[in-house]
């Protein structure tokens, strides 16, 4: 007989684990299973070496509009509140200065306008600082820079650096305290089929049935969605991020201004969450025909999602022909080459720390994951947001940045959707959820009302 549950969550990264925590602790759903194909949770993109360990609030990310920043801010505060409540010893996170750096008259003017056009009001702790204060906080950012060059930074003193892998484990541990929860690691889903009462998942450990399901398996989420007939107008542009390491250059996080039209994060530098003497620079953004970094077996999965049809090829051609994106993509391919890569990447590092020499940086071997950037084949364009497909009693989450930062907000939203799926059979105590998360965030100006 197959194992049967009210809810099955596929994917044991930060997205699936945050939903498991939310549904296990704050709903009365009677039986929940988390299925993860790896032997441990958080083994792929949520592992701390495979992402930029940033909790995005929207204050220093200059690719965010004010509206986007407002949305991301609430999500980040939910997770920050959870960390404040659960991680007093700072094993999962650290708090350090963060800033976005403007160098030269044009960039300084952009930051001044950004601050004045609502960001200063939205983030009361964000403040513009000049060369002298930048030097006090991040001496290496100013050292060796032309004294005649105009400088400005928007800085927040208490940014969060997060080990999303350990946070994922914490969510799972909290949820596992409930008798309603089963954790099935080392269990790969091979197919999913709809049934009159929900879904049947064929797995490496046998059949699992559920009344409702949420697939939070990163790039593989779209693959499963297409298997069930959803998301036929979407394909993936998998982007692999890499990093370079240096010794003890920064005290906190220093971002550079985002180039317009690029969905990829601007290169930034930050001190590692567990070892502040190690400074990480990146990420690079290399296009790869695979759903997971370094796993040739997922090339066929990519082709499965891509579809090898005219709409997919035309969409790729349209996107990559862009006069800004194409040079960027080609340049990032060079960064991974053994001999010339570090030399070509060096100017990106020097934009943050001018005195860095080639011998000071080295490729971070084994670092970096794959972000599933969504492509709309009808519009032949990149979908810059987080992708969510809602079907009949099933949700598919395909989460590019800032999916980890907003994982609890996304979990809250999905939990409401699940309550609709169950048609009033179960309830969600959102007030208690907020009390355990954002209610512990010390810098929220005022509580966000329950919806």
UniProtKB/TrEMBL annotation:
A UniProt-annotated Pfam family: DAO
GO cellular component, one term: cytoplasm
Any one GO molecular function term: (S)-2-hydroxyglutarate dehydrogenase activity
Required cofactor names: FAD
Domain FAD dependent oxidoreductase: 6-376
InterPro entries assigned: FAD-dep_OxRdtase, FAD/NAD-bd_sf
Keywords, sorted A to Z: FAD, Flavoprotein, Oxidoreductase
PANTHER family registered for this protein in UniProt: L-2-HYDROXYGLUTARATE DEHYDROGENASE, MITOCHONDRIAL
Family note: Belongs to the L2HGDH family.
Protein name (Swiss-Prot/TrEMBL): FAD-dependent oxidoreductase
């Amino acid at each position: 007989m197959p194992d049967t549950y009210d809810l099955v969550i596929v994917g044991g990264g930060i997205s699936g684990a945050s939903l498991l925590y939310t549904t296990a602790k704050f709903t009365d759903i009677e039986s929940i299973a988390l299925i993860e194909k790896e032997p441990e949770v958080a083994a792929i993109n949520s592992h701390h070496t495979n992402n930029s360990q940033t909790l995005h609030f929207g204050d220093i990310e200059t690719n965010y509009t004010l509206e986007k920043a407002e949305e991301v801010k609430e999500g980040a505060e939910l997770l920050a509140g959870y960390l404040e409540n659960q991680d007093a010893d700072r094993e999962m996170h650290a708090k350090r200065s963060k800033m976005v750096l403007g160098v030269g008259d044009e960039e300084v003017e952009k930051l001044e306008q950004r601050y004045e056009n609502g960001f200063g009001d939205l983030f009361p702790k964000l403040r513009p600082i000049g060369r002298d204060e930048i030097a006090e906080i991040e001496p290496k950012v100013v050292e060796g820079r032309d004294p005649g060059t105009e400088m400005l930074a928007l800085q927040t003193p208490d940014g969060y650096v997060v080990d999303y892998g350990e946070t994922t484990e914490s969510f799972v541990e909290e949820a596992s305290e409930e008798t309603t929860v089963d954790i099935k690691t080392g269990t790969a889903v091979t197919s999913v089929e709809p049934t009159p009462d929900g879904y049947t998942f064929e797995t490496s450990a046998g059949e699992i049935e559920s009344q409702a399901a949420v697939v939070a398996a990163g790039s593989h989420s779209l693959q499963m969605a297409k298997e069930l007939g959803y998301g036929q107008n979407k394909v993936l542009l998998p982007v692999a991020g890499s990093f370079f390491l240096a010794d003890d250059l920064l005290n906190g996080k220093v971002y550079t201004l985002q180039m317009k039209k690029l969905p990829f994060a601007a290169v930034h530098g930050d001190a590692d969450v567990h070892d502040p003497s190690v400074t990480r620079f990146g990420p690079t953004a290399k296009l790869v025909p695979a759903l997971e970094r370094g796993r040739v077996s997922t090339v066929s999965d990519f082709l499965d999602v891509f579809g090898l049809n005219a709409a997919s090829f035309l969409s790729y051609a349209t996107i990559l022909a862009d006069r800004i994106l194409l040079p960027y993509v080609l340049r990032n391919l060079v960064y991974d080459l053994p001999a010339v890569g570090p030399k070509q990447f060096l100017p990106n590092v020097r934009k943050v720390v001018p005195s860095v020499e080639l011998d000071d940086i080295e490729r971070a071997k084994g670092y970096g994951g794959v972000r599933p950037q969504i492509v709309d084949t009808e519009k032949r364009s990149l979908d810059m947001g987080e992708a969510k497909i809602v079907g009949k009693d099933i949700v598919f989450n395909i989460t590019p940045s800032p999916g980890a930062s907003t994982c609890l907000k996304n979990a809250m939203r999905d939990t409401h959707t699940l309550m609709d799926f169950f048609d009033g059979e179960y309830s969600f105590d959102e007030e208690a959820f907020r009390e355990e998360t954002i209610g512990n965030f010390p810098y929220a100006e005022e509580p966000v009302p329950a919806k």
